[in-house]
Amino acid sequence: MIRKKLGQRIKEFRHKLGISQEKFALSINMDRTYYASVENGKRNISINNIEKIANGLGITLEELFKGL
Amino acid sequence: MIRKKLGQRIKEFRHKLGISQEKFALSINMDRTYYASVENGKRNISINNIEKIANGLGITLEELFKGL
């Protein structure tokens, strides 16, 4: 399911940055509980929030969706 | 703004298929008014609906987001 795959991919990029869920969520001004549920594939996340996360990760949307 | 760019991109791919908004919306079982507003960049569309559209267009999410 796409939500699971996307959450996994987001998590991988966050790990590359070496920061915690909490720190990352804070850095993009997103509720940490909401953010955690995105990584877990539990949210039908909107394009605005996907963009916010990609920006925080320092990657393009193209890169985020690569292979998905 | 990402919603505008995404809507434009979706529209381009639909044009390549040579079908109307109405026909395309019907083919993916999506309300045509909602679909039209997505192409116009007026909706904060969710990942599930983005995937639905990409599937209908016969492209990957990676391809849909290329260059965005």
Question: Would you give an account of this structure?
Answer:
The structure is a homodimer. With about 70 residues, the first copy, chain A, is mainly α. Chain A is built from 5 helices and no strands. Chain A has helices at about 1-15, 20-25, 30-40, 45-55, 60-65. Chain A starts with a helix and ends with a helix. The interface of A and B includes residues 50, 61, 62 and 64 of A.
Q: DSSP helix count of chain A?
A: 5
Average pLDDT of chain A: 97
Detail the poorly predicted runs of chain A.
none
Fraction of residues in β-strands of chain A: under 5%
Helix content of chain A: 55-70%
Q: Tell the overall outline of chain A.
A: globular
Total count of strands of chain A: 0
The radius of gyration of chain A is 11 Å
The biggest sheet of chain A amounts to: none
User: From the helix content, strand content and strand pairing of chain A, which structural class follows?
Assistant: mainly alpha
Oligomer: homodimer
Largest interface: A-B, 18 and 18 residues
Q: Roughly how many Å apart are the termini of chain A?
A: 10 Å
